[in-house]
From TrEMBL:
The protein's name: Mg-protoporphyrin IX chelatase
Keywords, ordered alphabetically: ATP-binding, Nucleotide-binding
GO molecular function: ATP binding
Family statement: Belongs to the Mg-chelatase subunits D/I family.
UniProt source species: Prosthecochloris marina
Function of the protein: Involved in bacteriochlorophyll biosynthesis; introduces a magnesium ion into protoporphyrin IX to yield Mg-protoporphyrin IX.
Top-level lineage group: Bacteria
CDD domains associated with the record: AAA
Recorded metabolic or biological pathway in which this protein acts: Porphyrin-containing compound metabolism; bacteriochlorophyll biosynthesis
Domain AAA+ ATPase: 30-217
Length: 350
């Protein structure tokens, strides 16, 4: 079978805010994902699918399709083996552990609830008196990235499932009084064209970061987009090999940032600056404050520093606040970024 090549992440022209937001979520999965808003044909899907090549490796329990960590609760691991119809040795030392790359699992807009959540084999349960599970996409996405293209077009019942799993870190499969729950902690990445409708507020708030992207307006860069795409389609293997060094450098920088992140500190003065940002622009709740703090720490780590500066906070606010600012009916998210956050920055500087 012919190998399928993915357009390299580092070969994408422009769209630096989008690429940075995605990299930050790789470094720190607790940022809770990113919503990428923009017009058609701006490399949104290309960038997300290219993530697979720069994601780190993790330890995964072998023999079952739930992407479990060897450090998960032993009862959870045992039950996941049972519902998969596999046998788990009593000796924990014999647990099969494999190295897998963090996965990017794509959730199609038209996916059914059973495809997302998973299903119970009711016939097997009635005949054998045992649970047997057909895992869904939420099992595959555990400890990985769940990617939803055109996330604003998802059916409401699928949105409800995502909200429950994102909030609890657990996916529950229920049918005819029989239920099974398994871990499902994932980074949610969504792309959308605002012209096709907005997101429900509950789902919008679940994205840690939000970026707005537009088509490139510089003629030279647009030519570069065409040239690189032509070269990739003509000879994808050679094109990917050409960008291998750049990709490797990015992987090394991300790996360094992941190791450095726990050592990054934030002064109380800067924590107060974060709180004031959120108060002045009218952010509800405390999730915005926490996400800004985490994003600022991640930015510092990515830059090789162990202390958060004011520039980190300003940049983090541009990622974390646009979709959390209170808006008037029919007011667009981008207008808020262009007005309220700029006003806030000028006030701080004065």
């Amino acid at each position: 079978m012919k190998k399928q090549y993915t357009y390299p992440f580092t070969a994408i022209v422009g769209q630096e805010q989008m690429k940075l937001a995605l990299v930050l979520n790789i470094i720190n999965p607790t940022l809770s994902g990113v919503l990428i808003r923009g017009e058609k044909g701006t490399a949104k899907s290309t960038a997300v699918r290219a993530l697979a090549d720069i994601l780190p490796e993790i330890d995964v329990v072998g023999g079952i399709p739930f992407n479990l960590s060897p450090d998960e609760d032993s009862d959870v691991i045992k039950e996941c083996f049972e519902v998969s119809g596999e046998v788990l040795s009593e000796e924990r030392e014999r647990l099969s552990v494999e190295k897998h790359k963090v996965r990017v699992v794509e959730l199609p807009v038209g996916a059914t609830e059973d495809r997302v959540v998973g299903t119970l084999d009711l016939e097997h349960a009635l005949k054998a008196g045992e649970k047997r599970i057909e895992p869904g996409l939420l099992a595959s996405a555990h400890r990985g990235i769940l990617y939803v293209d055109e996330v604003n077009l998802l059916d409401d019942h699928v949105v409800d499932v995502l909200l429950d799993s994102a909030a609890m870190g657990v996916n529950t499969i229920e049918r005819e009084g029989v239920s099974f729950a398994h871990p499902s902690r994932f980074t949610l990445v969504g792309t959308m064209n605002p012209e096709e409708g907005e997101l429900r507020p509950q789902l919008l708030d679940r994205f840690g970061l939000c970026v707005q992207i537009d088509g490139i307006r510089d003629a030279e860069e647009r030519v570069m987009v065409m040239e690189r795409r032509f070269l990739f389609e003509e000879n994808p293997e050679a094109f990917c090999r050409r960008w291998a060094d750049e990709s490797e450098k990015l992987v090394e920088k991300i790996d360094m940032a992941r190791r450095l992140y726990p050592s990054v500190s934030v002064s109380r003065e800067n924590l107060l600056a974060i709180a004031n940002y959120c108060l002045e622009v009218g952010v509800d709740g405390h999730r915005g404050d926490i996400i800004i703090m985490k994003t600022a720490k991640t930015l510092a780590a990515y830059d090789g520093r162990t202390e958060v500066g004011r520039d980190d906070i300003d940049k983090a606010a541009m990622f974390a606040l646009p979709h959390r600012i209170r808006r008037q009916p029919l007011q667009d998210i981008v207008m808020d970024v262009g007005s309220m956050l700029k006003n806030k920055t000028s006030n701080l500087e004065s």
